[in-house]
Write a structure and sequence with these properties.
Number of domains: 1
Distance between the termini: 23 Å
Largest sheet: 5 strands, antiparallel
Strand order of the largest sheet: 1-2-3-4-5
Strand content: 25-35%
Oligomer: single chain
Radius of gyration: 12 Å
Length: 86
């Protein structure tokens, strides 16, 4: 699963050739969640509220990049890194 960003101990990744709807994976410690793009709802899993808030803040800023990486992943092409939250 290619990592596309990492910030404050949170790892963001996407699988290649995944199914719709578009989403990304967020991991923080032992917690994992699947976040739907573009409405940023949690499809499955759990993140602590503070970590989830940071992920949502980051995703809002980088929505276009996430959608672009999703299209690349669907076509099994290399993903672009996305700037971390600072």
């Amino acid at each position: 699963m290619p990592e596309i960003s990492r910030f404050f101990g949170i790892i963001i990744a996407m699988f290649f050739d995944d199914h719709n709807p578009p989403y990304f994976h967020a991991r923080y410690g032992n917690d994992n969640a699947v976040i739907k793009i573009p409405d940023l709802t949690v499809l499955e899993g759990y993140l602590q509220p503070r970590a989830l808030g940071l992920v949502i803040e980051w995703a809002v800023i980088h929505m276009d990049e996430l959608l672009s990486d999703w299209e690349l992943a669907k076509n099994k092409k290399p993903l672009f890194p996305v700037e971390p939250l600072k």
